[in-house]
Amino acid sequence: MTYFEDTGSIIDAPIELVWAYLSSEHHGPAHAGSARNFDVKETVGSTAVISADRLMNGRWARFVSKSTDFPPLCICNEEVEGDFAGSKFILVYRPKGNQTQVDVYGDVRSSGMDPNTARAAFLKLLEGAYLEDVLAIAKFPKKSP
After folding, report:
1. Is residue 145 part of a domain?
2. Which 3-state string (H, E, C) describes 52-97?
3. How far apart are the C-alpha atoms of 75 and 48, rounded to whole Å?
4. Radius of gyration of the chain (CA)
5. Of 7, 73, 88, 118, which is most buried, counting CB atoms within 10 Å of its CB?
6. Is residue 144 situated within a structural domain?
7. Which domain does 72 fall in, by range?
């Protein structure tokens, strides 16, 4: 087990807008620079199995993950195939007025990397996804009051 946490990231949008974006058709395409060939299948309720190719260290690698949304609290993820199969992590969303704090906690595993390399690579992937989401949320349509 290689535990990790990354806390205190801020999205400059209220939690309601963040969750509206996360559940919209804009979310997947926001990650087109780092992932391709998305296939999302709803399985049970708010749990989906997602497969795609992920750009990592200059190469495309296939992954499959199971993701369960518990709006507006958290998203629970488990990597079931690919470089990080067996990894589990949770993204916790906290309202901070007109901003949203995102904290990530998890256990990263990799059969092809030593624990420290796997941890660093996984955190880099999460950081990239966070930055893509921040840009997309800034452009996401806001509802008029």
Report:
1. no
2. EEEEECCEEEEEEEEEEEECCCEEEEEEEECCCCCCEEEEEEEEEC
3. 11
4. 15
5. 118
6. no
7. 2-139
d(CA 97, CA 81): 38
Q: Of 72, 27, 71, 79, which Cα lies nearest the Cα of 54?
A: 79
Tell me the pLDDT tens digit for each residue of 76-130. 999 999 999 999 999 999 999 999 999 999 999 998 899 999 999 999 999 999 9
- Both tokens assigned to 113: 């990397």
Q: Which long-range contacts (CB under 8 A, 24 or more apart) does 89-97 make?
A: 89/4, 89/126, 93/15, 93/18, 93/19, 94/15, 95/14, 95/15, 96/10, 97/14
Alpha carbon distance, N-terminus to C-terminus of the chain: 47
Residue 111 CA to residue 48 CA, distance in Å, equals: 24
What pLDDT score does 44 carry?
Answer: 85
pLDDT at residue 31, rounded to an integer:
86
pTM of structure: 0.91
**What is the b/e burial string over 52-84, where b = at least 16 CB atoms within 10 angstroms of the residue's CB?**
bbbebeeeeeebebebbbeeeebbbbbbbebbb
